Amino acid sequence: MPEQSSMHSYLSWTKERLDEMDAVLASLETKTDQGKTELRRRVDQLMSDLSKRRDEFQAQVKAQAEAGETAIKASNAQLESLWHGFEAQVESYFETIGEQIEQQQATFRKVAAAQAKAWREAADKLHYEAARVAATRRADMDAAIKQMRVDAAEAEARLQKLKQAGSDSWISMSSALSEARKAFDQANQRGWDALKRAAFPRS
Predict the structure, then answer these.
(1) Residue 58, Cα to own-chain centre: how many angstroms?
(2) I need a surface site. Which of 103, 116, 134, 190 has the fewest CB within 10 A?
(3) Cα separation of 167 and 102, whole Å?
(4) Is 173 exposed, middle or buried (0-12, 13-18, 19+ CB in 10 A)?
């Protein structure tokens, strides 16, 4: 169970990042048919780079998931680096196309929706696993799940508020997504740690 707990946390982390990458690519691909010739070439190259980064991230995740927990711990920094490279490429994309607030907001909405979906799925998965823990440990797990859902609702409310404001730059929207992502990672880890403690209490 301890190894399984780490694996669940890792898989939630990677799934959220992949879902966000997919949301960014889907949002940006809807706008790729617009633009002048030189800008069009630059945008096409950036889109190609983003797709390659996403594919590289996914391949690395798959390889590490098959290798087990030891390999996951060793490759975590590499995955973080790939993720940050993807984020930097998205920022470069928005710098290249200039002030296209509508596209930035559409991308933000899709990424925020992907984050919210990841939160719900992670809480549901944790709930499912908690149901398998003995009834005597149920109260600890219920508290962890409740807290994860409260954290998710708060993060979603902050993102909704920013969506409605609608005039912020990509940098501030990206910063809000990053804060929500960090909160998700922490809540997800706390939930799986609580499950591990409940399943394997100290004697």
Answers:
(1) 13
(2) 134
(3) 9
(4) buried
What radius of gyration do the chain's Cα atoms show?
19
Number of Cα atoms under 13 Å in the Cβ half of residue 82: 20
Cα separation, 90 vs 20, whole angstroms: 11
Closest to 177 (Cα-Cα) out of 127, 115, 120, 118: 115
Q: Write down how long the chain is.
A: 203
In order along its 203 residues, the chain shows pLDDT tens digits of 445 556 777 777 888 888 888 888 888 877 655 555 667 787 888 888 888 888 888 888 887 777 766 667 677 778 888 888 888 888 888 887 776 788 888 888 898 999 889 888 888 888 887 777 655 577 777 787 888 888 888 888 888 877 776 667 788 888 888 888 888 888 888 878 877 777 766 64
Between CA 50 and CA 3 the distance in angstroms is 32
- For residue 11, report the phi and psi dihedrals to the nearest 5 degrees: -65, -35
Find the largest Cα–Cα distance for the chain.
Answer: 69
Q: Which amino acid is at 11?
A: L
Vertex 82 angle, CA 28 and 177, to 5°: 55
First to last CA, the chain: 16
pTM: 0.62
